[in-house]
Amino acid sequence: MDNKLLTSLVLFSSILLTLFTSSYAQNCSSHQFRSNNVFATCNSLPVLNSFLHWTYHPDNHTVDLAYRHGGVTDSAWVAWALNPGSSGMVGAQCLVAFSNSSGQIHAYTSPISSYSTGLMEAPLSFRVPRISAEFINSEMIIFATLELPSGRTNFNQVWQNGQVSGQALQVHQRTGDNMRSVGTVDFVSGQTSGATGGGISASSRQRRRNVHGVLNAVSWGVLMPMGAIFARYLKVFKSANPAWFYLHAACQTSAYAVGVAGWGTGLKLGSDSAGIKYTTHRNIGITLFCLGTLQVFALLLRPKPDHKYRVYWNIYHHVTGYTVIILSIINVFEGFDALNGQKNWKRAYIGVIICLGAIAVLLEAITWLIVIKRKKTSVSDKYPHGNEINGYASRSHEQTA
C-alpha cells in the first residue's frame, strides 16, 4: 500500500507541474469568441494584457479585426488605434469602447489631434463600416471592419485603457506599461511589434518578464512546496525510506537552481527598466534568494542524526524552509500583479496551490493515523498480555495472604 501511495503521489505531482507550466504556453489563437468569429491571424501585444485578431481581405483592402483587452472592469475604457502618420498618440485613429451610464457597451471611433483629447466621438481618416464591442469575464472586446488607406498594410499601432467617471473618459496612467503600449502591425505579414523609449523592444521585454515569471513560479512557487511535502509526509512510510530524502533534495535543489536563473532575469529586467519599480516584489525576491542560499549551505553543515546539535539544525532548517515557502507564494502573486492582469496564469497557479494544499491536508491525516496506529502497536508489543502486571500483583497478593 505504501509503495502505491508513493508512486501515485509522485505521478500526480509530475502531472500537476506539467499542467501548470503548459498553461504559460497558451497561444492567443486558441481563443474562442462567443459570436464564433474566426480570424486568420492573432498576435499577443507586448503589454497591458492585450491581443489583436484580424483577417485581411486583399481584394478590397479591408481588415476584419477584434481587439481584446483583459484584466479590466466595467468602469474602464479601452482603445486601440492605427496611426498612419507617426508612432505616438497624436494622429492616432482610435476604436474606443466603454460601458455607458445605462450599462450598455458603447463602441465608437475617435481621432486624436492633441494630447488633451477627451476621446470624443468623430469619424476617422479612413472608413470604419462596422464597429461593436462586448464585455465578458473582465475582458473588453472591440470588433471592427477597417477600410485601410490605399497602398499600405503596415502601420503604427497604439492601445490603451483608463477609467470612466460618469460619462467622462479619464486620462490613462502615465507610467509603466501605459507608456509603452505602442508598436507596429503589418496586416499582410502578420507581424506586430512594440517599442520602448529605452531602445529595447517591448515584446522582447515582455518575453523576458514572462520567462522571469515562469521560472520563479515553478521554482519557488511549486517545486519548493512539493519538496516540503515529500519531506514531511513520505518519510512516515517505511517503504519510502530513503526515497523521500532524494525526492526532497532533488525538488529543493532544482527549485534553487531554477530560482537563481529567475532571480537573475529579474535583476536584468530591473536594470533595463529605469523608473519602473516593484519594491515589494523586489525586496521579497532578494530575501528569498538569501534564505535559499543559506539553506543550500546549511546542507553542507548538516550534523549526523545522533549529533547533539542536530536538534538545533532541524529547528533552523524547518523554520527557514517554511518561511521560504510562505514568502515564495506571496511573491508569486506579487509577480502576477506586476504582469498587468494575467488572470489565466494567476488562476492556474491558484489551482496548483489548492491541489498541493489538498494533498498536504490528506497526507497530514494519513500520517497521523499511521503514527497513532504504530504507537498502539508498540505498546501492544511491549505488553502482549495487557493485564500481566496486574495479574502478577494479584497472584503475589494471594500468596502473601
From TrEMBL:
<feature type="signal peptide">
    <location>
        <begin position="1"/>
        <end position="25"/>
    </location>
</feature>
<dbReference type="Pfam" id="PF03188">
    <property type="entry name" value="Cytochrom_B561"/>
</dbReference>
<dbReference type="InterPro" id="IPR006593">
    <property type="entry name" value="Cyt_b561/ferric_Rdtase_TM"/>
</dbReference>
<feature type="transmembrane region" description="Helical">
    <location>
        <begin position="284"/>
        <end position="301"/>
    </location>
</feature>
<feature type="transmembrane region" description="Helical">
    <location>
        <begin position="213"/>
        <end position="231"/>
    </location>
</feature>
<feature type="domain" description="DOMON">
    <location>
        <begin position="48"/>
        <end position="162"/>
    </location>
</feature>
<feature type="transmembrane region" description="Helical">
    <location>
        <begin position="348"/>
        <end position="372"/>
    </location>
</feature>
<keyword id="KW-0812">Transmembrane</keyword>
<dbReference type="InterPro" id="IPR045265">
    <property type="entry name" value="AIR12_DOMON"/>
</dbReference>
<feature type="transmembrane region" description="Helical">
    <location>
        <begin position="313"/>
        <end position="333"/>
    </location>
</feature>
<dbReference type="InterPro" id="IPR005018">
    <property type="entry name" value="DOMON_domain"/>
</dbReference>
<dbReference type="InterPro" id="IPR017214">
    <property type="entry name" value="UCP037471"/>
</dbReference>
<keyword id="KW-0249">Electron transport</keyword>
<keyword id="KW-0732">Signal</keyword>
<keyword id="KW-0472">Membrane</keyword>
<feature type="domain" description="Cytochrome b561">
    <location>
        <begin position="176"/>
        <end position="372"/>
    </location>
</feature>
<protein>
    <recommendedName>
        <fullName>Cytochrome b561 and DOMON domain-containing protein</fullName>
    </recommendedName>
</protein>
<dbReference type="Pfam" id="PF04526">
    <property type="entry name" value="DUF568"/>
</dbReference>
<keyword id="KW-1133">Transmembrane helix</keyword>
<keyword id="KW-0813">Transport</keyword>
